[in-house]
Design goal:
about 325 residues, alpha/beta, Quinone Oxidoreductase, Chain A, domain 1, Rossmann fold, 2 domains, seven-stranded mixed sheet, 11 helices, 16 strands, metal-binding, NAD(P)-bd_dom_sf, RNA-binding
Length: about 325
């Protein structure tokens, strides 16, 4: 089968940063599904994984942590899917990814594709949707009783922010999102943000200008170090902060200690990376969100499509992500 990958970390401009290669089609065993990949989307984690790869590795690494396609074979332990099922998934960062014609994915990380979404639209959603879902419900423990509370989403126009705004709005929270350009502000508003503020300006002052003295929850989807002081000022006593971007410098926890603030990390590959007993929760999340998409309560966040899936289109996608101005999600169709 055709696959696109790399051997060592190189700048995306280098002709060898991503290359096409013929590799053996994998065989489904155990809980694995063999999926014929129809579309993939590209996330910041793809570019980070490409840049972080150890120099001069001998193994050909295939990236891609979002996909949608058709089940072509099932392992002997599979019970959730059958051959011919249309599915979407985010996969496992420790295994070969979706930038190929076929991919093996543990069925416990897979959901039935929303019927009302195309393969391209569905491929845009799994990684960001699971990240947003786990952030809100697993890490910050938001429940029905929290309706009417407030959440600040830093980086609202990105992939995770675009679905987090929708989920938080559905949950009945007052949603304050951050954006810095007119087009990203309008995008956040279209998704249900009640208030949009600029993440390059003082966050607490902007909250006060909107008659808010603080927020109950903060979901930080951008530079955690850059926004730490602002988050410490904005979070209410006994509030909760969740971040998805690793910190380069130490975080001064004294700034949130007196408020008894809870701080949590979210990494959507935790369950698969550590073979957690509750891996199947990601199947349940994707199943629930598939229903919400089909009911029209959630909308897909695909904003850009490339085709076909080649080394050149994938390089173009990585470059767009590295430019840091992406709104929503970028998808590449297989053909």
């Amino acid at each position: 089968m055709k696959a696109i990958g790399f051997y060592k970390a190189l700048p995306i401009e280098d002709q060898h940063s991503l290359v096409e290669q013929e590799v053996e089609t994998p065989i489904a065993n155990g809980y694995d599904l063999l999926i014929e990949v129809n579309a993939v989307s590209v996330n910041p984690v793809d570019t980070k994984q490409r840049k972080a790869n150890k120099p001069n590795e001998e193994a050909f690494r295939i990236l891609g942590f979002d996909g949608a396609g058709i089940v072509k074979a099932v392992g002997d332990k599979c019970t959730l899917f059958q051959i011919g099922d249309e599915v979407y998934y985010a996969g496992d960062v420790t295994r070969n990814g979706s930038n190929a014609e076929y991919q093996l994915v543990d069925e416990r990380l897979v959901g039935k594709k929303p019927k009302h979404l195309s393969f391209a639209e569905a491929a845009a959603m799994p990684l960001t949707a699971i990240t947003a879902w786990e952030s809100l419900y697993d890490r910050m423990k938001i429940t029905e009783k929290d309706r009417g509370k407030s959440i600040l989403i830093i980086g609202g126009a990105g992939g995770v922010g675009s679905i987090a705004i929708q989920l938080a709005s559905l949950q009945g929270l007052t949603v304050i999102a951050t954006a810095s350009r007119q087009e990203t502000t309008e995008w956040c508003q279209s998704l249900g943000a009640d208030i949009v503020v600029n993440h390059y300006e003082d966050l607490y002052t902007q909250l006060q200008a909107n008659q808010l003295e603080g927020v109950d929850y903060i979901l930080c989807l951008a530079d955690t170090n850059q926004h730490w002081d602002g988050m410490a000022a904005c979070i209410k006593p006994q509030g909760t902060i969740c971040a998805i971007v690793e910190n380069k410098d130490s975080l001064d926890m004294q700034k949130i200690r007196a408020k008894s603030v809870t701080f949590a990390w979210e990494f959507m590959f935790t369950r698969s990376m550590f073979q957690a007993e509750d891996q199947i929760e990601q199947h349940h999340m994707l199943t629930k969100m598939s229903e919400l998409f089909d009911e029209g309560k959630l909308r897909h966040t695909m904003t850009s499509v490339l085709s076909p899936l080649t080394a050149e289109t994938l390089k173009q996608a990585h470059q767009q992500l590295e430019d840091g101005k992406m709104i929503g999600k970028l998808v590449i169709e297989q053909k």
